[in-house]
Amino acid sequence: MHKTQWIENKILDGVALQRQVNIWHSFGKKIVFTNGCYDILHRGHLELLAKAADMGNILIVGVNTDASVKRLKGDDRPINHEQDRAFQLASLLCVDAVCLFDEDTPENLIKSIHPDVLVKGGDYTIDTIVGAQHVLSYNGSVAVIPFVEGYSTTSLISTIKKL
Q1: Is residue 100 pLDDT above 90, yes or no?
Q2: What angle do CA 22, 24, 30 make, to 5 degrees?
Q3: Closest by CA position to 21, among listed 105, 110, 107
Q4: Residue 37 burial by CB count (10 A; 0-12/13-18/19+): exposed, middle or buried?
Q5: Which among 14, 10, 11, 8 has a CA at the least distance from the CA of 107?
Q6: What residue ranges define each of the domains in the chain, with the CATH number in brackets?
Q7: Residue 162: how many CB atoms within 10 A of its CB?
Q8: pLDDT value at position 91?
Q9: Neighbours of 60 (CB within 10 A)
Q10: pTM higher than 0.70 for the full model?
């Protein structure tokens, strides 16, 4: 199998992801889930993903579709197309699966996969993390990873516009 095919095989729709999650659960794998827009992949994203992957055996990343990003971030976003963002994330060794979602939040995706650990970045608290109460309801855990200072897509875009 070519490496690009291996990467593309990690990008799953909701049905395929659910099937794969059932397999991982049957083998007793500890599943970690995080999500975001990942419009311009930067060190802050990469550190969060690596730390999230360390919390279990399988890391699933939910990625907002282009339409979802536009609703959340405005008409000038996203910079990168959803398939490109998904491919970038799937190419990371620490990421086991990527799934696009079109809603404004990943709540339905979280409820369908029942992750053992739900992870978000430092701009959230457990009270503000979508899906946290669901994960806690079956004794899963929720983790907040501190921000890496100086890294954000918004600040990168601002710097690029100044050039």
Answers
A1: yes
A2: 120
A3: 110
A4: buried
A5: 14
A6: 3-162 (3.40.50.620)
A7: 6
A8: 97
A9: 26
A10: yes
